[in-house]
Amino acid sequence: MRNALSLFRVLTKNAENSMPKKGTKGTIYMALGIIALSCIMIPCCIIVGFVSYVMTLALTAAGSATGGLLAEIHIMSAFSMVFGILVIFNILFFSSDREHLVPLPFKSHEILAAKFTYAYMAESLMEFMILISMFIGFFIAYAKSGLPVHPISVLSALLGVFLIPLLPMCYCVIISLLTLALLKNVKSTRIFHNISTILLFLFVILFLFSFRDAGEITVENYVESLAGGDNLFVTILNKIFFAVPVLLYTIEQGSIPGLLLYLLCNAAAIAVMLGIGYFAYQPGLYTVAALGSGKRSTMKQKNLSSAHSIFSAYVKKEWLVLLRTKAYSGNCIFINLLWPVGLTMLLLWNKNKPAFMKFYELYQAGNANIYLILASAVVIISFIASALNSLAATAFTREGAHLSLIKYIPVSYKTQLAAKAFISLIITYPALLLTIIIMGLYLQIPFAWYLYYSLLSLAALLITAVVGLLLDSAHPYSTWDDEYSALRGNLNTFFDMAVVMVIALLLCGIAFLLYSLAGISLAMYHILLALLLGTGAAVACLVSYRIILRNMADLY
Q1: What is the pLDDT of residues 333-353, one digit of tens each?
Q2: In what helix (H) or strand (E) does residue 441 lie, and over which residues does it extend?
């Protein structure tokens, strides 16, 4: 294992985009890190801990103290598998270092162990924080219910924080190895990349099917099924993530044999993964190396000069790279469908609920608070949507090893910057417009409000795009091995989200305070909010424009 540890240390040195630590830039990025921690990570952990606390209190009264925690961990493990499978595929088989590692005096299972450990540590940091929050909420509610908390229970929870993400990652590796072994004659990587989509559909269908005897899909029905111990989703995932029920039994009973059994389950999962890797990893590397794609040669033959202008040619180049790269298409383009599809499903499932019907009635009655909520929701979601797809915050990072070309190709910096900003807006804005239309159809809002909300959304997108481009041009992450690393390891995306959340809360907060404290009218509130966003977008564009161009000139 010494070789595996040495290789792991080498891999971690290029794990993510290292931030500046000295000078003005270092101070700025330190401030951005504090903002990100305060505005994203800590609030997320507080929310998760509160949900765990509430569910534990409710289910303890129903005689199933660990039922809520069990469901939360299973849901997190399922998503970890869905979104981890492509990461594992790329780290194990599609990273650029595979040609350099195979000839070195490492055994195949040692390379596998090193890459698995690297992926596990890189992908599980946020899960560790979420799990800590879950267990804190659980133990507070558990103690409040008058149940004893054993020292072994606390120790088991601490071990669980670091070991719960292990089993889903082991499954991802095993699925990757077996898929390549069974489909080694397939000459396209598309089928491998589609596995995550298949897993997502399976878990979603299983989750929805678990409501078949509960009636409507509601939180109340889900909690009741957990209390009854007959939830199909949890029952099946108990078999898949078999170590989790053992851990929760150990926590509930304070059992030392249970703790030892839990550790044995995780050790067995690692042993099986390494055992399969011993025989299948190296043949899998050869399979990937032999993969051919006729589409690549077709792409090379296409001539972008057929575009009508240099600007449209550059936009087309950006669009084709995003669309034809699996990592970018899923995380930067199709993720925008989350908002219209999510809102549609939310309304279809809950439109007849008393709370939704009351919301509709209050809007039709002209309730001021409802109008405030709608305007703020449009602004905040627009900020989050643009930051979440990371189109602007990875605009320069996506160039990778070819980043220096932006300085030498016969396209001005202004044109390149305009194209990158335009592609960020044109991909995000239609999905948000569709979301506004769906909301408007449900509430039957007048046409003027469609225009108003659309303008608010556009201003928010402009601000987010400018912030993302400013951050990424100042310190792009160009030494990534694969496209997923470009998205995962780029802290500019994280900082972009944190900054725009602060901006959104600040702008909405100023308008709300003037409305509630200064007594301005509702109409003036909407005018003020639009002016704040419009002014913010104009100032951001004017101030940042020359800075971004200067950053582009200083890249190399």
Answers
A1: 999 999 999 999 888 877 778
A2: helix 413-443
Determine the angle formed by the axes of helices 166-182 and 108-144, rounding to 10 degrees.
140
How deeply is 413 buried, as exposed, middle or buried, from its count of CB atoms within 10 A (0-12, 13-18, 19+)?
middle
d(CA 280, CA 274): 10
Which residues, including other chains, have CB under 8 Å from residue 311's CB and lie 6 or more apart? 415, 418, 419
- What is the helix (H) or strand (E) element at residue 106, kind and residue range? none
Please tell me the distance from the alpha carbon of residue 111 to that of residue 104, in angstroms, as a whole number. Answer: 10
545 burial type by CB count under 10 A (0-12 exposed, 13-18 middle, 19+ buried): middle
Helices (H), 90-150: 98-101, 108-144
- Other CB atoms closer than 10 Å to residue 187's CB: what's the count? 11
Give the Cα separation of 508 and 533 in Å (integer): 9
Burial 110-124 (b: 16+ CB within 10 A, else e): bbbbbbbbbbbebbb
Backbone angles phi, psi at 213, to 5 degrees: -100, 0
Domain limits of the chain? 2-296, 311-553
Q: Are 439 and 364 in contact (CB under 8 A)?
A: no
pLDDT at residue 291 in the model: 62
11 CB neighbour count, 10 Å cutoff: 22
Half-sphere exposure of 15 (CA within 13 A, CB side): 18
CA dist list (Å): 338 to 33, 47, 333, 344, 492: 27, 21, 10, 10, 22
E strand or H helix at 371, and its extent? helix 368-388
Cα separation, 514 vs 479, whole angstroms: 47
Cβ 505 vs Cβ 481: under 8 Å? no
* Amino acid found at 401: A
Output the six-digit token pair for 356. Answer: 């939704």
Kindly state the DSSP code that residue 380 receives in the 8-state scheme: H
| Alpha carbons 409 and 422: distance in angstroms, whole number | 19
- Identity of the amino acid at 445: I
What are 463's two structure tokens? 């601000």
Amino acid sitting at position 468: G
Q: How far apart are CA 75 and CA 314, in angstroms?
A: 41
Q: Where are the beta strands (DSSP E) in 122-221?
A: none
pTM for the model stands at 0.79
Q: Residue 446: how many CB atoms within 10 A of its CB?
A: 9
- Taking 50 as the pLDDT cut, the residues of the chain under it are 292-307
Name the nearest CA neighbour of 183 among 95, 96, 100, 287. Answer: 287
Query: CA–CA separation, 506 vs 501, rounded Å?
Result: 8
Q: What confidence tens digit (pLDDT) does each residue in 242-283 have?
A: 999 999 999 999 999 999 999 999 999 999 999 999 998 888
Please tell me whether residue 195 adopts helix, strand or coil conformation: helix
**In the 8-state DSSP scheme, what is residue 292?**
-
In eight-state DSSP terms, residue 185 is T
